[in-house]
Design brief:
about 30% strand, five-stranded mixed β-sheet, 14 strands
């Protein structure tokens, strides 16, 4: 597979650039998770060579309530991750953003919590030690996209297709104190977020949906990377978005979507799509 990884990586990068659909690789041959991460590694290398800067990671399928909704041959039962590059991440001022959907294939919206690592965690860091490495947290809205018709794919296909990442919008970061880090997992697990479109409430989700807590999601990623030596481990300065608290809803130009949190001191975001 490694000999074909670069070829497949170019296919997905070209599909994104041209806003084109492609068929899942799993329809063509047996695509393993390891194969998919080989393609992801090739994509990272190509993007870096073209001048993009890797600034963090994106976690997907961390919300257990959604696992049975995705996967055609088998339900998705494990989180995935992909690299985040500076070209698809931006910070939102005054909690409101205007976002173009030009070039976004089958876009959907996901409310998430984003973290920045202030220190590099030790390879054997426990979850409390990992929390101590966090500098800030923020609310994020991720626009996910799918080159696969009707959002039909397997877990490995999602990894290969750049993690289905489109754009990440990050709200105002809130610095984490030593005291807040000590109770962060529990605080996030008990918090909730609402998701509305044009003033109509569509969904509510809880931090506990995300592998019991978004902090657990980062810890899962930290452990997974210890088994993937082809990728760099988590490092100081990275931002990590930890996965949606609600289902991912289709978005269209002309709509304005809004979020609001309860239980954590993060402001909601408003995003108007064009």
């Amino acid at each position: 597979m490694s000999l074909l990884a670069e070829q497949h990586a170019y296919t997905f990068l070209e599909a994104r650039a041209r806003t084109q659909h492609v068929n899942p690789l799993s329809w063509q041959f047996e695509l393993s998770i390891a194969d998919a991460y080989d393609i992801a590694k090739a994509s990272d290398t190509i993007r870096a060579a073209e001048g993009e800067v890797r600034i963090g990671r994106k976690l997907g399928f961390t919300n257990r309530k959604l696992w049975t909704k995705y996967g055609e041959k088998a339900a998705i039962r494990e989180p995935i991750w992909s690299s985040l590059f500076d070209s698809t991440v931006r910070y939102v001022e005054d909690n409101h953003a205007y976002q173009s959907l030009t070039g976004a294939l089958q876009p959907r919206i996901e409310p998430e919590v984003v973290f920045k690592l202030g220190r590099t965690p030790a390879a054997d860091a426990c979850i409390e030690e990992l929390a101590d490495c966090l500098e800030w947290m923020a609310h994020g809205v991720e626009i996910v996209v799918s080159p696969y018709p009707d959002w039909k794919f397997e877990a490995a296909d999602a990894i290969a297709a750049l993690g289905l990442h489109g754009t990440l919008l990050i709200g105002e970061p809130r610095i984490l104190s030593s005291a807040s880090r000590q109770h962060l997992a529990e605080l996030l697990a008990n918090a909730s977020v609402s998701l509305s479109c044009d003033g109509t409430l569509l969904s509510a989700g809880y931090g506990s949906n995300v592998l019991d807590s978004p902090l657990h999601a980062i810890w899962h990623l930290h452990g997974l990377l210890q088994k993937q030596p082809q990728f760099p481990p988590l490092q100081a300065g990275e931002i990590i978005t930890t996965g949606t608290w609600t289902d991912a809803y289709p978005v269209q130009s002309g709509q304005t979507w809004g979020t609001a949190f309860s239980g954590i001191p993060l402001p909601g975001l408003s995003v108007s799509f064009a």
